[in-house]
Amino acid sequence: MADLVKDKPQKHEKKVEKLPTDGTRSKEKAGRAKDPAITAPGVDEQGDDQGTAGMMENTYQLGPSGQFPVSAVSNILKEEITNTLQEEKYEAQRCQDLTLTLCEGIRNRVKELLIPRYKTVVLVHIGQLNGQGMQISSRCLWDPSCDTFTSYSFKNTSVFCSGTVYGVYFE
Predict the structure, then answer these.
(1) Whole-structure pTM over 0.85, yes or no?
(2) Is residue 52 part of a domain?
(3) Domain assignment present for 142
(4) Cα–Cα distance between 106 and 102 in angstroms, integer?
(5) What is the pLDDT of residue 134?
(6) What is the tens place of the pLDDT at every residue in 57-85?
(7) How far apart are CA 64 and CA 84, in angstroms?
(8) DSSP code of residue 43
(9) How far is 77 from 98, CA to CA, in rounded Å?
(10) What's the domain count of the chain?
């Protein structure tokens, strides 16, 4: 019985693959294709360059080259909300669609400003105006030296709207 226990490998023992001293892998693994995650991007297995025009090099830039244009974004936010909701009456399904339309329109116009290395987040809330109160809050990881936001509130006879655009620097 004691001999049988000694002959069986223990469960906790790990098999260790021994590499040849010349740094190459064993023969059975040499024929296998290379892992694409290990090869350099833009270079195939033979080492030929596939055109790395789309690749960008590191800039090692630690801060923004310019500030987020709060006034321009604020004007876009006001124009989009006011022009869209000026004569609107509250209808639940219509306001749900308007929220998506406003977010896309604001985001597209802010993207046209070509603000480098800033991510923009657009939030729009639309509701029925019945004299009620409402508090909207948000939380995020924030660097006050370069991250910022702008907000705008709108009311007409039956609809209220609150829109916020966050500009968060992307390192």
Answers:
(1) no
(2) no
(3) yes
(4) 6
(5) 87
(6) 887 877 888 889 999 999 999 999 999 99
(7) 33
(8) B
(9) 14
(10) 1
Asked if the structure places residue 54 within a domain, the reply is no
Strand partners, 28: none
pLDDT in tens, 110-161: 999 999 889 999 999 999 999 888 898 988 888 999 999 999 999 999 999 9
Is the residue at 44 inside a domain? no
Instruction: Give the burial string for 129-138 (b: 16+ CB within 10 Å, else e).
Output: eeeeeeeeee
Helices and strands (H, E) in the chain, number of each type: 4, 3
At 99, which CATH number? 3.30.1140.40
Kindly state the tokens that stand for 138.
């948000």
The range of the structural domain enclosing residue 82 comes to 70-169
User: In the 8-state DSSP scheme, what is residue 62?
Assistant: -
pLDDT digits (tens, 9 = 90+) for 3-53: 555 555 555 555 555 555 565 555 544 555 544 444 445 544 555 555 556
Dig out the tokens for 22 from the structure.
């010349």
